[in-house]
Amino acid sequence: MLELQGLHSFYGRSHVVQGVSLNVGAAEAVGLVGRNGVGKTTTLKSIMGLVPQTRGRILFKDEDLRSSATHVRASRGLGFVPDERAVFPRMSVEENIRIGAFLQPGSQQAACLATAYELFPVLARRRNQAAGTLSGGEQKMLSLARGLALQPDLLLVDEPSEGLMPINVDLISNALQQAASTGMSILVVDASFELLRSVCGRLYVMEHGLITGEHQLAEFSTPAELVKTYLRGPS
């Protein structure tokens, strides 16, 4: 589904992604972990075309996306749920979800709404409420619900559990699990061991703009064991 080959990306003069290579298979959920500032978010944004790559290849369904604009990548089946509370604040909860489902046939749009409300009951209770008045956790759930409503072939998800209470992390994990069970491919950046273990089969470790390891989640039985793979500090 996705293959990165020696990806390099910059913010201005800052060389953030320094040769990342990884892959995500069809109907596979993969995690990307590492300390803050090592380039995880930039990798996702580069895949989506929000940060320009300077070298390397981004192959999506065997097609090189190097010259494709962000909206073209989305139309080809790429979805992105950013870390920020990316909602349309003056629009209602339901209108936000409908934007995600806009490209679906009319008969499926209602099903997308029903699924979103089943996964996140609080959104059903607040469907007519302006999205900007939701709590931070509720906005995170809404952003993910909108991304899932797009029904992309590959969904990029950045820090979905950050700052959430455990009960809401469980809801996010369940939503990603269900998406994966339908055949959606997922690449998720997150620090929650429970979320990664429940959603992903394997993960990549990133350090200083490079992939430094690839692991099966089954290798780790505790969060501490996972943390040791990437919180070692500079060598």
Outline the structure in words:
There is one protein chain. With 235 residues, the protein is of the alpha/beta class. It has a domain at 1-77 and 154-161 and 185-235: P-loop containing nucleotide triphosphate hydrolases (Rossmann fold, 3-Layer(aba) Sandwich). It is 36% helix and 27% strand. The chain has helices at residues 40-48, 70-75, 93-100, 106-119, 121-125, 136-149, 166-181, 193-199, 223-227; strands at 2-11, 14-24, 29-33, 53-60, 63-64, 78-81, 154-158, 185-189, 202-207, 210-216. The chain is globular and about 45 Å long. The mean pLDDT is 90.
What is the compact description of this entry?
The protein is α/β, with parallel strands linked by helices. Helix content is 36%, strand content 27%. A six-stranded mixed beta sheet has the order 6-7-8-3-9-10, sandwiched between helices. A four-stranded antiparallel beta sheet has the order 2-1-4-5, with helices on one face.
* Total count of strands: 10
Question: In CATH, what is the homologous superfamily of one domain?
Answer: P-loop containing nucleotide triphosphate hydrolases
Distance N terminus to C terminus? 34 Å
Form type: globular
Widest beta sheet: strand line-up: 6-7-8-3-9-10
Q: Please give the share of residues in helix.
A: 25-40%
Pattern of helices and strands: EEEHEEHEHHHHEHEHEEH
Please name the CATH architecture of one domain. Answer: 3-Layer(aba) Sandwich
SS field, number of helical segments: 9
The amount of beta strand, in percent, is 25-35%
The CATH C-level class name of one domain? Alpha Beta
The chain-level structural class is alpha/beta
Could you tell me the CATH topology label of one domain.
Rossmann fold
Mean pLDDT: 90
> What is the assembly state of the chains in this entry?
single chain
Q: Which blocks of ≥5 consecutive residues have pLDDT under 50?
A: none
**What can be said about the biggest beta sheet?**
6 strands, mixed
Radius of gyration: 17 Å
